[in-house]
Design a protein that fits this description.
The complex is a heterodimer.
Chain A lengths: L2 H14 L9 E6 L2 E4 L7 E6 L8 H16 L8 E7 L10 E6 L7 E10 L5 E9 L4 E2 L9 E2 H13 L7 E6 L2 E7 L20 H10 L3 H6 L1 E9 L2 E2 L4 E6 L4 E6 L6 E7 L2 E8 L23 E2 L4 E3 L4 E9 L3
Parallel strand pairs in A: 3-4, 3-5, 5-7, 8-9, 12-20
Antiparallel strand pairs in A: 1-2, 6-7, 10-11, 12-13, 12-16, 14-15, 14-17, 17-18, 17-19
Chain B lengths: L1 H12 E2 L4 E3 L4 H6 L3 E14 L6 E14 L5 E7 L1 E3 L2 E5 L10 E7 L6 E3 L6 E6 L6 E4 L11 E2 L10 E2 H12 L5
Parallel strand pairs in B: 5-9
Antiparallel strand pairs in B: 3-4, 3-8, 4-5, 6-7, 8-9, 8-10, 10-11, 11-13
Classes of the chains: A alpha/beta, B alpha+beta.
């Protein structure tokens, strides 16, 4: 999708109220009765690469691609992260060995999974013991600079998975379409959107505003604290809180989108990492697919409401927050 | 204020681990690509090492209420990536987590003698929840099924998209198996 098309779509959000979007979440894990954010306590993240290629991609090319993807995340100006390639290994990415291993693996039982990130977590502390990423050799891969028809772009998928490795969960900021023979992505405003673009494209190599807000939220540096702001409030329906509603902030100045979810029973939401300035808010239900890609299955996510725009422009202050936004929605 | 927001985000945004990159399946693909389609109740979930002892998987057993396709017996068992043995929990982000007592419609695949797995990691899992007001069993998430040959953009909040009752869902599966609504 071209930059122009992106701008058209984001503009259309305001105009026709129908473009599906959403925002980033952070990964978490339960420690006793608490849920804590999953994040690295020490940098650099030290990782190994499995010394095994696949058709069309050598292990050396895999290493280069993974390094590029790490570098893309590390270049975000509002967050501070770092990584270090330790060396090649014969271990599989799924091996429990206390090391972070990234590599190709044949998983025919995961027939729709291009790649995945796994963690071993100490349930008494919530600490990451190790995290691994595998790329499924059941699919055809490419590391070509321009992409190759019919092959999935390794850098795009690596960028997504390394986002998970850092603790980012999925963003729902994407649009799909259905047609006889399948479902496909037609636009994504976040690398962390869980559904892959069709084979052959390299659109997933560039972080979007939503991704940048997310990584800054987890590993903020002084630039983040000083230069970004937040919007918070509640989503309600018939006076009660709505859980799992998508609240999207459209930056009128940069024409970019960042958002959040209402993540408590009272409908409270917070969208952080926003550029200062005027924003338009929209709330919508996550009723177009796999809720479990975003939320714990035990949560009672409400998808029975109509999309709604907030009737005021919300101005985000630099280094501060605007609170008290009330978004009232009605059932379908 | 900043500190308050960060604390709030910490408390509110942390969720169970789920994520991966999926090649999406349309409902017909899920139906036709599954050897077993069963509605039932989870009776047990136990974690065990994979055959090569490289990872922990969960073995889930379901008491079958009814089969819409296939039908190996009164119970069906399948494997889901991830699980907890001792102090350490292995989570493959994106893999569904099931608990005893839950009801679901499951679309399962198996190749050769291996234990079955859910189609498309979580795409073949439709949970059944009891609606608090009506008492009806509803299937979540809503079904996304192509209608005819025309391409349809999926818009969130579409008033025509709703959660189906268990009976309606079963009828939709049968319709997809017969090649309808495409």
């Amino acid at each position: 999708m071209t930059r122009g098309a992106v701008l058209f779509l984001t503009g259309a959000l305001v105009a026709v109220f129908s473009v599906p979007t959403a925002a980033y979440l952070k990964l978490g894990t339960r420690v006793g009765t608490r849920t804590v954010t999953l994040k690295w306590s020490q940098f650099p993240i030290r990782y190994f690469i499995t010394d095994r290629g696949t058709t069309g991609v050598t292990s050396t090319q895999l290493r280069q691609t993974v390094q590029t993807a790490f570098s893309t995340w590390e270049a975000v100006p509002t967050s501070t992260t770092s990584s270090e390639f330790v060396g090649f290994t014969l271990a599989n990415p799924s091996s429990r060995d206390g090391a972070t291993v990234i590599g190709f693996q044949n998983r025919p039982d995961l027939e729709r999974t291009l790649g995945a990130t796994s963690f071993i977590v100490d349930t008494t502390t919530g600490a990451i013991v190790e995290s691994d990423i595998f790329f499924n050799t059941a699919f055809p891969w490419s590391v070509s600079a321009q992409g190759e028809t019919g092959l999935f772009d390794l850098e795009s998928i690596a960028l997504h998975e390394i986002g998970h490795l850092h603790g980012l969960a999925h963003s729902a900021m994407g649009e799909t379409e259905l047609r006889a023979g399948g479902r496909r992505v037609i636009a994504a405003e976040a690398v962390m959107f869980p559904i892959a673009f069709s084979a052959g494209t390299i659109l997933g190599r560039t972080l979007k505003t939503d991704d940048i807000a997310g990584i800054g939220d987890i590993y903020p540096n002084s630039t983040y604290t000083r230069n970004t702001g937040s919007i918070s409030g509640k989503v309600t329906k018939n006076g009660a809180g709505v859980l799992g509603a998508h609240v999207i902030a459209f930056d009128m100045r940069t024409q970019t989108l960042v958002g959040g979810f209402s993540l408590s029973e009272d409908g409270t939401f917070v969208i952080a990492g926003l550029d200062p300035g005027p924003h338009v808010l929209r709330v919508e239900p996550l009723d177009d697919g796999d809720i479990e890609s975003f939320f714990d299955a035990t949560l009672n996510i409400d998808v029975n409401f109509q999309p709604q725009f907030y009737d005021k422009i919300v101005v985000v202050p630099k280094g501060g927050g605007t609170s008290g936004v009330e978004l009232n929605v009605v059932a379908k | 204020m900043r500190r308050f927001i960060l604390i709030l985000m910490l408390l509110l945004c942390a969720r169970e681990l789920r994520a991966t990159v999926l090649v999406p399946a349309e409902f017909h693909e899920i139906v036709t690509g599954s050897q077993i389609i069963v509605y039932g109740r989870v009776t047990s979930v136990r974690a065990e090492w994979s055959d090569d002892r490289s990872r922990i998987d969960s073995i889930v057993t379901v008491m079958a209420g009814s089969y819409l396709k296939g039908g190996p017996g009164s119970t069906v068992t399948f494997r889901v990536p991830g699980g907890q043995i001792g102090r350490y929990r292995n989570v493959m982000v994106g893999a569904p987590q099931l608990q005893a007592g839950e009801e679901a419609v499951l679309f399962l695949r198996a190749s050769g003698p291996s234990i079955a797995h859910i189609f498309g990691l979580s795409q073949g899992l439709y949970r059944v929840k009891v609606d608090g007001r009506s008492g009806r069993r509803l299937v979540v998430p809503p079904v996304l099924m192509a209608d005819g040959d025309a391409t349809q953009t999926i818009a969130r909040g579409d008033r025509n998209r709703r959660q189906l009752s268990l009976d309606e869902f079963a009828a939709t599966v049968r319709q997809a198996m017969s090649g309808g609504a495409r």
